[in-house]
Design a protein that fits this description.
The complex is a heterodimer of chains A (103) and B (360).
Chain A (H helix, E strand, L loop, with lengths): L2 E4 L10 E6 L1 H4 L8 E5 L3 H11 L3 H5 L10 E5 L2 E2 L11 E6 L5
Parallel strand pairs in A: 1-3, 2-6
Antiparallel strand pairs in A: 2-3, 4-5, 4-6
Chain B lengths: L1 E10 L2 E8 L6 E6 L5 E6 L6 E7 L3 E7 L7 E3 L14 E8 L2 E7 L2 E5 L7 E2 L1 H4 L15 E7 L7 E6 L2 E5 L7 E2 L22 E6 L7 E5 L2 E5 L7 E2 L9 E6 L7 E5 L16 E4 L7 E3 L17 E3 L7 E4 L5 E4 L7 E4 L5 E10 L1
Antiparallel strand pairs in B: 1-2, 1-28, 2-3, 4-5, 5-6, 6-7, 8-9, 9-10, 10-11, 12-13, 13-14, 14-15, 16-17, 17-18, 18-19, 20-21, 21-22, 22-23, 24-25, 25-26, 26-27
Classes of the chains: A alpha/beta (103), B mainly beta (360).
């Protein structure tokens, strides 16, 4: 997979640049999507906004209307499961994974 | 002149398309589509050939899928398919209906959405959830779902819907205001003196006969019913059937007095074929009398059920009748139910079956 770079239209001031790894199940829903992508985002919520701007509809697949990260989606950063408001640091690696579920 | 008949099958593990020529004797199967998401309902628009599929995925939430090339490629959208922040999020899209240029989607938790851009985005028909009865809606065993959407054949302002467990509702103003349409249907699960409430009945399937929009039938958790006035009054048609319980109902494409049902053995008796013997029941007189149709169907050890959207007819003459089981078998009749063949016995649990008849 090629690596895309997405520039967030987020808040003024220095915004962290982070590397995001998307699950195969997610990118299968968006033809042309990359498994590895670099975005600028200060929080996990902003990271999802950036992904949605690049691949419209991806936000709905990761975030529900509460709004929260969907129950069976795990977004890890620095080894920890995150929430929408979790801040991202410069250079962080973020993994968007599908949890064990289904039947 | 119909050239091709497609069975549009929603299953626990994706949508399938089962295809035959107009003889309906040999069938081929394509799928699974929709990335193997659980697909609750698949419909086709005979005017355009577009196929729509409603589903919801444990990981990625609800979506309405669409194919404009008979299933070769698909897109998906849930744009606008959401309630206000803080409300319980939508788990899945459950039921679809096309009315003119409007695509309706019923969802869980129960609500109605409308798309006027061919499924690219949706808007909430909020008048239904604003109904004062909503605080009294109670989820059934399958959840709180809006599973039946019945547009009027000519007047786009009129729509009937059904919710488990809230009952049937009707709008005459395009969804701004709604009225319960449950008079005469029972709620056996309520105390004896409260069994005919204004709302709260557990409708399993609501269908409209061809004609002027006045003839409705429903399979309820508690009985089978007909209405000849758009649901203002219902009357029982369960006499002559093996039980009062079942899920689906399907109308004939031309005869308003013909209806097909699949009664199961009972709500707390296992919910499978009565005595393990498969039968579709057909009436030709609007429910006054019933015939059990068994030829070609398993007559022993049939411990499966047929879910609420998994029985349908096609528009050919004689009409085809089709049903899928919750154990993955798909049955077809090309003679209005007189005889049956098993198209396949190896699909995932089948949630819905609809037909799309295409011209040459």
């Amino acid at each position: 997979m090629s690596e895309d770079v997405i520039n967030s239209a987020a808040a003024p001031g220095p915004v962290p640049t982070v590397s995001v790894v998307l699950s195969q199940a997610l990118i299968s829903l968006f033809p042309g999507a990359s498994m590895r992508v670099t975005v600028t985002a200060a929080t996990v919520g902003e990271m999802i906004d950036a992904l949605d701007a690049r691949w419209p509809g991806m936000g709905d697949r990761l975030r529900d209307s509460q709004p929260s990260v969907r129950r069976h989606i795990n977004i890890f950063c620095d080894g920890n499961r995150t929430q929408l408001a979790t801040p991202l640091r410069e250079g962080a690696s973020v993994f968007v994974l599908t949890a064990v579920s289904g039947g | 002149m119909v050239h091709k008949v497609l069975l549009l099958v929603g299953t626990k593990k994706g949508a399938f398309i089962v295809e035959s020529d107009a003889r309906r004797a040999e069938w081929s199967i394509r799928g699974p589509f929709c990335e193997t998401w659980p697909i609750n309902h698949v419909i086709g628009d005979p005017a355009t050939g577009t196929i729509y599929a409603a589903g919801g995925n444990e990981w990625f939430g609800p979506a309405v899928w669409k194919s404009t090339d008979l299933g070769t490629t698909w897109t998906h959208s849930s744009a606008g398919l959401k309630y206000a922040e803080g409300e319980t999020p939508i788990k899945a899209a459950w039921s679809l209906a096309r009315a003119g240029n409007v695509l309706y989607a019923g969802v869980e938790p129960a609500g109605l959405f409308r798309s006027t851009d061919d499924g690219q985005s949706f808007e909430h028909v909020s008048g239904l959830r604003d109904h004062p009865s909503r605080s009294g809606w109670v989820p059934g065993a399958g959840g709180m779902i809006l599973h039946s959407i019945v547009p009027h054949p000519t007047d786009p302002q009129q729509v009937w819907i059904a919710i488990s467990t809230a009952g049937a509702f009707y709008t005459a103003d395009g969804g701004h205001s709604w009225q319960p349409r449950n008079r005469g249907t029972r709620a056996d699960f309520m105390p004896e003196d409260q069994r005919y409430p204004e709302f709260g009945q557990c409708v399993h399937s609501l269908v409209m006969s061809p004609g002027d929009g006045e003839w409705l039938y429903q399979q309820n958790h508690c009985g089978m019913y007909r209405s000849r006035d758009g649901g203002q009054q219902w009357e029982s048609i369960e006499a002559g059937l093996p039980s009062s319980f079942g899920f689906p109902a399907a109308v004939h494409p031309r005869d308003p007095r013909t209806l097909f049902l699949v009664p199961l053995n009972g709500d707390i008796a296992g919910r499978f074929m009565p005595e393990g013997r498969t039968a579709v029941y057909r009436t030709r007189d609007a429910g006054d009398s019933w015939t059990a149709l068994r030829e070609g169907l398993p007559q022993q050890n049939a411990f499966f059920g047929v879910l609420r959207q998994a029985l349908t007819t096609d528009p050919l003459s004689p009409a085809g009748v089709y049903f899928g089981t919750n154990t993955g078998q798909l049955y077809a009749s090309g003679d209005e139910g007189d005889s049956w063949t098993c198209v396949t016995a190896t699909l995932p649990p089948i949630y819905s079956v609809e037909t799309l008849a295409l011209p040459a």
